[in-house]
Amino acid sequence: MLIPQSVKKRKGVLAIGAHPDDIELGCGASLARLARDGVYIIAVVMTSGKSGADKLIDRHQESREALKILGCKQTIHLDFDDTRSYLQLDGMIRALEDIIHYDIPSEVEIMRVYTMHNADRHQDHSAVYQASMVACRSIPQILGYETPSTWLSFMPQVFELVGEDDFNLKLKALSKHKSQSKRDYMRSERLRAVAQFRGQQINSNYGEGFVIHKMIL
Q1: Which among 32, 43, 102, 214 could disulfide-bond with 169, CB atoms 3.0 to 4.6 Å apart, if both were Cys?
Q2: Which residues 6+ apart lie within 8 Å of 95 measured at CB?
């Protein structure tokens, strides 16, 4: 259905992750805050993440449950090859372009993309960054989020001020990733330390930091 030009569209955000827990780790608290403010959130997970868990575990289902907690209105799970997505760059670009053109409700205008950081040392993460930059070229703002594989070098340029309730929703969402629960970076005290450090940088209790890949104000 076409929306008349006089009708103001609802603001939307597109969050893109390489693996089923990347979005929650990188911008989970920010998405929770935005959803509470009425922003329409679409999440896209590019791979199944099978190399990071028992093959019998459905990591996409873990992700669906987690992203629902954060307030995502749509979750789209693709099945590019985990650890080999850098060999499928053209396919990932086309898949993201199709989602942007055909899957976003006509009454929603995507104003911002959250995606992987370009200096991330994980090969899937950097490939998803490259695909995002091409596929999302018409979207005004593209921000790269922080993940454990960027912790050594991540230097945020902009921050999202998030509350304790937002951060706790992030922890609740991540608790759905039971297949990853033994990983050190999933420990709540580790995640809280990062959020508190980013918060300290902006004179707040909690925060999430991002690098600017593109910013039109």
Answers
A1: 32
A2: 46, 78, 80
Angle ∠(160,201,174) on CA atoms, nearest 5: 50
Using one digit for the tens of pLDDT, what is the confidence trace for 117-146? 999 999 999 999 999 999 999 999 999 999
Single out the residue of 25, 32, 12 nearest to residue 113, CA to CA. 12
R_g over Cα of the chain? 16
Closest by CA to 27, choosing from 136, 124, 169, is 169
Helix runs in the chain, H state only = 22-36, 59-70, 89-98, 123-135, 164-174, 188-201
Strand partners, 161: 207
Look up tokens 């053109």; give the residue. Answer: 101
* pTM value surpassing 0.85: yes
**Would you call 20 helix, strand, or coil by DSSP?**
coil
Tokens coding 43: 């999440």
Distance of alpha carbon 200 from alpha carbon 37, whole angstroms = 23
pLDDT band (50, 70, 90) for residue 2:
low
